[in-house]
Amino acid sequence: MAVGALRDIDIGLLRTFVAVAETGRMTTAARVVSVSQGAVSQQIKRLEELLRVTLFARMVDAARLTRDGEKLMPLAHRMIALNDEVAEQMSTVTVSGEVRLGVPHDVVGRLMPPILRAFSREHPGVLITLVSERTAVLRKLLRERGIDLALMTEPERADRGQHMMTDRLVWVGAKGGDAARIRPLAVALGENGCAFRALAIRALNAARIQWRAICQVGSMEPVFATLEADMAVAPFLRRTVPDRLGILSDAGLPKLPSYHINLKLPAHDVSDSAQELARHIREGFARRYA
Questions:
Q1: Tens digits of per-residue pLDDT, 130-189?
Q2: How far is 71 from 81, CA to CA, in rounded Å?
Q3: In the chain, what percentage of residues exceed pLDDT 90?
Q4: Nearest-angstrom CA–CA distance, 258 and 1
Q5: pLDDT score recorded for residue 60
Q6: Dihedral angle over CA of 251, 252, 258, 263, nearest 10
Q7: What is the Cα–Cα distance from 171 to 166, expressed in whole angstroms?
């Protein structure tokens, strides 16, 4: 075919082609690209007519790539990736200024770095100031406009758009340690306003386990040191447990409930940079932790 006779290729046709090639079935590909099976067959036919080749050897409810189909696969992946990159780059919102982000102590170090790194690469003109505090303090700061948005660990699941993740509370201690078997049980609890404190106490009392509180501080580093030294156990969200500590699943301790990480913004006057950071946080949690 002469070069002048070539026509533009619809990216949607390539997406359908890749879906059929990777699943091997028209019916499965239809679910992947969210169209009917008939539409998938029509799109493959249009692409074959456009390129004047046969891309699949059809069998009963199955499709196998021909040599021309195999030749097209890497090129289709490249075209789809370039299309998506152009769309993403051109739709990027240019924002600048400072955003004050509140994050609980246990969430900030374990879950946030990859999300914040991606945001900073895309928006180098935005300065993010992290405020790490207990949820109760963050709630007060947000109400008084001391911060622009905040992630909070809460027993209630927030509405859609605010709820980032649900995770179970687990008991954590030194790997291979003995602290969980000693009575009274030494428990590293946060300050009185700590979100997990009341839940842990209620569970221990219901299980009639004698316990004593140690390391009642807001900072996480003394808690980590206490746990690593096998001096106590503590409640953590499962996804925030540091690699150097162990989850005590077989220690005979009472089961703890699930908790929610919610994203909260003021009701009014939210800056463009804060809204853009909120979008990145939502997408980051959905992509990495859902």
A1: 999 989 999 999 999 999 999 999 999 998 789 999 999 999 999 999 999 999 999 998
A2: 17
A3: 62
A4: 62
A5: 67
A6: -40
A7: 17
Angle at 200 between CA 195 and CA 202, to 5 degrees: 110
Name the amino acid, one letter, at 100: R
What is the structure's pLDDT at 81?
87
Reply yes or no on whether the pLDDT at 5 is more than 70.
Answer: no
Q: Give the C-alpha separation, 258 to 238, whole Å.
A: 10
Domains and CATH numbers, the chain: 3-91 (1.10.10.10), 97-163+263-288 (3.40.190.10), 166-259 (3.40.190.10)
Query: Are the C-beta atoms of 108 and 134 separated by less than 8 Å?
Result: no
Q: End-to-end distance of the chain based on CA atoms, in angstroms?
A: 48
- pLDDT: which is higher, 212 or 251: 212
Please tell me the predicted confidence (pLDDT) of residue 42: 93
Task: Retrieve residue 15's tokens.
Answer: 């997406």
Residues 6+ apart with CB under 8 A from 111: 239, 240, 261, 285, 288, 289
Compute CA distances 54 → 22, 39, 50, 65, whole Å. Answer: 17, 18, 10, 9
For the CA atoms of 179, 180, 185, 188, the dihedral, rounded to the nearest 10 degrees, stands at 70
Classify the C-alpha dihedral 153-154-155-156 as positive or negative: negative
List of residues 6+ apart from 130 with CB closer than 8 A = 101, 103, 108
